[in-house]
Design goal:
- By secondary structure, the chain is of the alpha+beta class.
- The protein is about 20% helix and about 35% strand.
- The chain contains two helices and nine strands; from the N terminus they run ββαβββββαββ.
- Strands 1, 2, 3, 4, 5, 6, 7, 8 and 9 form a nine-stranded antiparallel beta sheet that branches.
């Protein structure tokens, strides 16, 4: 993909730096409460996937890159009364082509994060007092169009 890294700081972002995206579908996943965490392997195949429509704005240019993905500042708009818009980070693979940048790759990353967040939460419930808490980001998939799928980190 052709891109250039933006030097704009997150606190400098305003409406002029973010573009509304059309036809946005938001995918989240959850793991139901388990009686016994040892059974998680049996439940991984039944992770709940929930699609919803959202309004998302995305920066024109990424602010960072890693070995595999580029990261954009974004905003998830919440129109429910009393709800605040949420700043988010949107990531997409920076390489395209055969066998790359597939929807299944994004779903796999989301599910891995979902399991890691669930396991961290379960660990924190039984960790001795004074132990450091473990946290993992909850991620979602944002399908902006058929050809543009992003991972959204809240």
């Amino acid at each position: 993909k052709d891109f250039s890294i933006s030097e704009t700081e997150p606190h400098d972002l305003d409406e002029s730096h973010l573009e509304p995206q059309k036809n946005v579908h938001w995918l989240t996943c959850t793991i139901n409460t388990l009686d016994n965490v040892r059974n998680i392997k049996e439940h991984i195949g039944s992770i709940n996937h929930n699609w919803s429509n959202k309004m998302v704005k995305k920066a024109r240019h990424p602010f960072a890159e890693g070995a595999q993905r580029i990261s954009y500042h974004g905003m998830r708009m919440n129109y429910a009364e009393g709800e605040e818009d949420e700043k988010i980070v949107l990531k997409e693979f920076k390489h395209t082509g055969s066998g790359r940048d597939r929807r299944s790759d994004y779903v796999e990353i989301m599910e891995t994060q979902c399991v890691a967040a669930f396991m961290a939460s379960e660990f924190n419930k039984v960790a001795p007092p004074g132990s450091k808490r473990i946290t993992f980001l909850h991620v979602s998939i944002t399908a902006i169009s058929v050809f543009n799928i992003l991972i959204g980190c809240l």
